[in-house]
Give the backbone structure.
Amino acid sequence: MPPVSGVLEQVQIDHTVVDLIVVDEHHRLPIGRPYVTVAIDVFSRCIVGLVITLEAPSALSVGLCLAHMVTDKRAWLEHLDIEAGWPMAGKPGELYLDNAAEFKSEALRRGCEQHGITLRYRPPGRPHYGGIIERVIGTLMEMVHELPGTTFSNPAQRGSYDSEAKAALTVAELEKWLALAVASYHGKIHGTIAQTPQARWAAGTAQTPAVTVANETAFLVDFLPVIRRTLTRTGFVIDHVRYFSDALKPWIARRGQLDRFVIRRDPRDISRIWVLDPEGGSYLTVPYRTQSHPAVSVWEHRAAVERLRAEGRAQVDEEALFRMVEQMRTIADTAKSTTRKARRDAERRSKAGAAGPRDKPAVAVPPEDIPAGDAGRASATDAGSVAPFEVIEQW
């Protein structure tokens, strides 16, 4: 593998299950182990992106990690209410990844093509090629082993320690702790580069400034899962749910001449979709046709469909689907004090984007690239209506 000679020339991304049992926000009872997705800049050994989820790794978690990587982190740190420096941000030249399915998704491929990011993969059966990212994840997990509720690395190391009984941190508290841990890591001498990661980053960006993205929301849309649908006279139908906006009318009038549309959907909140203009590079935000329906996640939607099928419904209609979602939420709210799965599901729902306000139909403008030094002067409105980077859900 050729040597890396500059900041953000190559970034490695990988995931792991965190060696820690977390608790829910409401009852402070165990809900299991979360996942973390980490991105490291190979040249400086700085951690440039980090996402915590309650769902297994997916194409979306990769996109969320990238969105965290390319945007200035000061607003996120302020949201966490911590004083820590994490100036490492910028768009990578190349992503070096393993061969897992989430790293070979159409969503990632199309997003990287749009933003000029090269994808490269480890040779199959050669795990040492991913040693850099795996070592930094190992370092973070060693630090996690000091927290109450740790599972350690294996049963032998855990011994008689009761991880569930000792669990004390919520996902939000773990995220806050990890942000501080990363800041500490950046300030310690790294054995391979013989200096601190933050010093090497500063030297590297003094020669070649990092390019960040002003609009995290627009950037993330480019990495959301891809769906293709034909436009009908009443809009789009995706998984039994109808979407419509008056802004679709010009396309509806000539839908016979148009191919299937490329659509992006955020699995955390399916109350809106982003439709790619077939003649341009922008996305149109299209909400539910029936906007009184609640915002739901993909996993809630699929669970409701499965429940309707189990009840013998040959056809699933939209109204029955959302009635089932409401019934299942009521059951979950009643059960969450007693069952771990219900508590975890409730926590996922509360932390997902579904809790946020919906956008009015609008065109999503491609994100503007800005030099890292100018990031602090970007308008606060660039963040869009999506909640600040917090605890993340994905599918």
